[in-house]
Amino acid sequence: METLRGSVRTYAWGSRTHLAELLGEEVPSPHPQAELWLGAHRDEPSHLTGRGTNLADALADDPAGGLGPGRRERWSDRLPYLLKVLAAEEPLSLQAHPSAEQAAAGWAREEAAGVPRTAAERNYPDPLPKPELLCALTEFHALAGFREAATTVRLLKALDVRALEHHAGLLAAQPDGDGLRAVFTTWITLPQRAVDELVPALLDGCVAHVRARGEFTGEARTLLDLGERYPGDAGVLAALLLNRVTLAPGECLYQPAGSPHSYLSGAGVELMANSDNVLRCGLTPKHVDVPELLRVLDFAPGLPTLLRGEGKGPVTRYAPSEFFTLARCDFEEGHFDEGAIDERQAGPADLGLEGPRIVVTVRGTVRLRTAAGRCHEVSQGSAAWIPACDGPVTIAPVDGPALAFAAADGLEAPGG
After folding, report:
1. Considering only CA atoms, which of 362, 271, 279, 266 is closest in space to residue 13?
2. Angstrom distance (rounded) from CA 101 to CA 110
3. Measuring CA to CA, how many Å separate 414 from each of 73, 330, 355?
């Protein structure tokens, strides 16, 4: 086990307070801080501070020790996940990610066509899927997946926008995934002049609905915010079709392949497959490849996937994908008495993860211990790398309440 130093990404939608407070830096920060990356991503590998090298190079030097002999072949000597602490002050782009089969086929297609991997129009810079989950640290707002068509028809009728009556009628006549595909395709391919007319009409309907305190006031407020930030963007229309989700701290939202989503605001711990494959749907000035997007999107309506974790005591594990498992290690409420704040009294908990692991602490301090008795403390804003060769690890709070997260792959003990 050793200390791992992540990298802060400064995107315009980030927060000037959350990551700065987490890292013990000046608040507010000089620039918006959006994500703290922890992993071996090729663009920003985290650093092993005791060795003066980065995690990607360390894995290249000793893939068997870092990943485990049984995992090397499956992951082609790469760390399969990327762990982030995300802080959104403004909405992210509306996007979706491909399945494993779609990613492999798309990557091969673009390679054969000679599309540069760094080109703005490149959809598949790698051949990997990108499922992801987010566990909320604060109240967190998002758009995720297509809403049930009948509910969307009610929303469109409640907004009472004449220019949308035809689309509401189409969806009412075919209230399923095919109907959603038809309406989405119509909106995302509208000429810019038509978008410039339809979005303001939609926003006028939202204003009236909010003033009347209608059934869909939350959705209308979100559309007003998006319309103000992204005027003339067809993604504002697309957002009409999506579930609006509010997560309480500790709740986890999973984004499978094909699920359109946008994180609107809040802070959370995000864990994803180590891939850059993103198909954008709107709410962005970046390239939107509509034909490829329509191939990737899953138009099946339904509620977003909120994960129910497994485990007992302070450690809850979420394992929706072979690429990653997230463990939430909560020593803050109900797991020990106020007077029992040291490791002996609170008792260590089994982390329950194998293979290559990363631990980040978001509040307090935790102590990690291997079966051989080696210990490593991880304080707020700090992280630790646990290679596969370290074997089983326990976790316990140090001198008071603590909240930490641990990442691993989702494989079942493949011999190392």
Report:
1. 266
2. 14
3. 10, 28, 9
Residue 325: left (phi > 0), alpha (psi -120 to 50), or beta? Answer: beta
Phi, psi for 56 (deg, rounded to 5): -60, -45
Could you tell me the CA-to-CA distances from 57 to 52, 78, 128, 373 in Å, in that order?
Answer: 11, 10, 21, 27
Q: What is the three-class DSSP state of 181? A: helix
Residue 298 is classified by DSSP as -
Q: 0.90 exceeded by the pTM?
A: yes
Catalytic residue, chosen from 72, 244, 280, 367, is 280
Catalytic (active site) residue 280: yes
Q: CA 132 from chain center: how many Å?
A: 5
Interval 241-262: pLDDT, tens = 999 999 999 999 999 999 999 9
How many residues does the structure list for the chain? 416
Find all residues with CB under 8 Å of 176, minimum gap 6, and list them. 149, 301
